[in-house]
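ARCHIVE RECORD
Type: protein–small molecule complex
Small molecule: molybdenum atom
Source of inputs: curated submission
Record status: active
Notes field left blank by submitter.
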Amino acid sequence: MIRPPTIGSPLRDVRVTARVGRALGVAVGICFATGLLSHLHQHPPMWLSIPPTPAWGYRLSQGLHVATGIACVPLVLVKLFSVYPKLVQWPPVRSVPHALERAAIAVLVASTLFEVTTGLLNIAQWYPWSFFFPQAHYAVAWALVGALLIHLAIKAPVIVAALRRPVDDDREGVGLTRRGLLRTTALATGAVTITTVGQTLPGLDGLAVLAPRRPGIGPQGVPVNRTAQAAGVREAATDPDWVLEIAGPTPLRLSRAALLALPQVEVTLPIACVEGWSAQGRWGGVRLTEVLTLAGFPPGSRVRVRSLERRGLYSSSTLTTAQAGHPTTLLALRLNGSDLALDHGYPVRLIAPNRPGVLQTKWLARVETT
Ligand SMILES: Nc1nc2c(c(=O)[nH]1)N[C@H]1C(S)=C(S)[C@@H](COP(=O)(O)O)O[C@H]1N2
Ligand SMILES: [Mo]
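STRUCTURE (tokenized, with ligand):
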């Protein structure tokens, strides 16, 4: 029997593994639950009408999703470090139950690395792959959770026993102690969180040096994901003949001046991007219900808005009936006290409470029923 040399660091201790694993389990649990919620927002099943309140609901859940996902990075690395010799143990399988246990671990490690890597690349807005990120990220999450539950069931007795035993601080040789490793892991996890969570948590934005976005940076003090130039709508959005088509029983064609002549309201609502950044804005414009009533839409209609942007996933979005009927759901014409910038969706964009940023469609062309 060939054995690789055991890499027998005293740091590779089941008590360390169990404690780091517990933290990782909590992070993965929150990340999975909030990821599921984000999926439901973007693909609502017929039985579910997502409520418009609290307005900051998606901002909180997606902020948690990305923050816990980032926190997984140091936790996964330390967890893998602490069990590394076991991953390459020889012979690879000893029995049928052992083979199942190792298969679950293989799926768990592979899916976790996949989720963390694709998630990180996504928040950096870098898509160096050909598959569709949300679908792949969502499907693999289920594989991860399945493998995690099997792993926990098999290891439960070992985990419970390891968590009961205190981590002793005896120094074996020089270097890091086991408690020192746990402290370092906690510090590293805290550090990556503190330097990124300011992309969504007001007050910590000054510390968000590792965050891909800072909430206050962008035209009118709000970040932009896709510019009018990138969306190919510059010309159409600045065309003096632009009108918003309201395809109701009484069809309307409203110029920006006509929209500005309707009763104006101002609401404070966040843009909360799936990438984990969010920014509050003061939006001015016309209530969607105002225009729906004018065009004779029956109450409770399922409404869809369409962008001047023809192609792409963000060219339209559908509102739940509760969101469409909410008084803070606006056809926004102004942001933070001035006319909406072209990159924020001029001449008019949708802004509605408790919705992912991807559904806050910019450069509107049409309002219709589904
Ligand atoms: N037509 C259109 N609307 C869009 C997008 C887009 O690419 N095209 N991007 C969406 C995304 S992903 C986000 S997070 C918000 C960003 O809004 P902002 O650029 O005003 O900050 O707009 C959304 N609306
Ligand atoms: Mo977004």
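CURATOR ANNOTATION: DSSP finds ten helices and ten strands in the chain.
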